[in-house]
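Need the bound structure for heme C, inputs here:
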Amino acid sequence: MKVSKSSVFMLTLVAGTLTGTAHAAPDWGKVPARNVTVFYPGNSGLEWVMKGVDHSGARAVKGGETCAGCHDKEAADIGRKIVSGEKLDASPIKGKAGSIPVKVQAAHDAEHLYVRFQWKAPAGGGPKMDPANQMKLTVMMDAGKVEYAAQGGCWATCHNDMRSMDDANDEAARKHAKAGALGWSNGVTKYIKESRTTLTIKDKPRGGWDKLKSDAEIAAALKDGAFLDLMQFRTGGAPVDGYVLESRHMEGGKSLVNAEGKNENGTWTVTFKRKLAASGVGDHTIQTGNLYNVGFAIHDDHTNARYHHLSFGYTLGLDNAEADINAVKL
Ligand code: HEC
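Answer from helper R.:
Posting the output first, comments after.
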């Protein structure tokens, strides 16, 4: 029998609808959960972390030790210290929670990764820095090519000279020849060391926002997978599928299928569904046998920039008991 392409397509469609397995939402009650405390990080950018005089963990981080290895159990204490103004933030938001315990779950089927976050919304009432978004949840993921991502997750992208950080120069950033292309209209956004010729750690201003490598070198890094894949749920707009390399790109990715979030009786639930396959610019392919370095951030109560709660770095894998966050097969 000669089967036309369109009838094969129709058959597949019917079979898919009948079984429904490939697109069923996970039964989250059956998926193991990992508790991760996110905390208010103040001005603890990568340069602060890497300077031994400021932070006694600096040498261990250089040696490969992870932040979570020393601090996993202390995240709440660290957040309390910083949000109270005792350390790393001269003017913290009044009444802000120092930390938030978050339940993290992950699952996958043959085509998709599902990640779910749940937490009790802390008390609000702070300044509305981002009026459009009451809450944003951002996940970043490295596939093993970004320095410091294995140790510190998001810290690989966070520098003391970014907007809202203590060594920022927003005025100079806005005037930079590449400000338009890099989205610096409000100042410098996240970047990774691989995109810069040098990072200043010892002297002020710390960081390397304007020490950009050439376009060719940055294109090569992108091709090589040296970037953090980024996805974001936001209450006030469409989900974002981007990446961080020489700047924070809020577009380019095509792997994110959807991101949903709701607040029920004060408990937030945010779920991401993304293709395992890399489909666009700045997407990583997620494969069995690999571990991915992930970190996530919650911008609670209309906050922006550094005024979020942040996780240390954790690993994510598919059916991998060694992963901190093990995405189990559905
Ligand atoms: C070898 C253990 C070790 C590692 C690894 C380590 N730290 Fe620390 N960290 C410390 C110690 C000890 C302190 C407290 C004293 C100080 O500031 O030096 C500290 C303090 C901090 C503080 C300030 C809060 C406080 O209680 O003083 C922050 C924030 C922090 N670390 C973040 C990080 C991040 C982010 C990483 C990973 C990129 C990291 N640390 C890795 C040992 C470590």
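Comments: Residues 5-19 form the longest helix (15 residues). Residues 41, 44, 49, 55-57, 60-61, 65, 67, 69-71, 78, 81, 87, 151-152, 155 surround heme C (CB under 6 Å).
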